[in-house]
Amino acid sequence: MTIFKKKVDEEYLTVAETKEILEGLEVERAGDEDREMRYELARAIEHVNRFADLDPSEAREFVEQLVELEKVDEKTAKKIVDLKPQDRDELRAVFAQERYSLSGEELDEILNVVKQYV
User: Fold this and answer.
1) Of 75, 83, 15, nearest in space to 46 by CA
2) 110 near 69, Cβ under 8 Å?
3) What pLDDT is recorded for position 38?
4) Is residue 53 within 8 Å of residue 83, measured between CB atoms?
5) Sequence-distant (≥ 6) Cβ neighbours of residue 92 within 8 angstroms
6) Which structural domain range is residue 112 located in?
7) Which residues, other chains included, contact 42 with Cβ-Cβ below 8 Å and sequence gap of 6+?
């Protein structure tokens, strides 16, 4: 017998947004003494606590500013928010999987937005 899993929904999140969700889960699990926190969940919470340096509202605002540039889709904007690239080479690495490339001026526009949040 084979059990198939179907992907019901998919949503991209920044680390800050993920931290907000996991904090809620952590509080919920802490209230129920019978439920242990799984290893994977504990590691995920540890990861977001270490790497989330923006508030979820700041992260959403950052994503909105990047998407307004019309050169970045929401998925890529959330990668940029998490990575906060400091120069053109780091930013090009984010766009390496895309079917298009950006000019130097377009990269600089994106980096100017990133500098506001670093």
Assistant:
1) 15
2) yes
3) 83
4) no
5) 101, 102, 107
6) 56-117
7) none
**Taking the chain, what is the end-to-end CA distance rounded to the nearest angstrom?**
52
pLDDT single digits (tens) 3-14: 777 888 888 999
CA 101 remoteness from chain centre: 21
| Dist CA 80 CA 15 (whole Å) | 11
Residue 86 falls within a domain, yes or no? Answer: yes
Contact between 82 and 14 under an 8 Å Cβ cutoff? The reply is yes
Contact 16, 61 (CB under 8 A): no
112/62 same-domain check:
yes
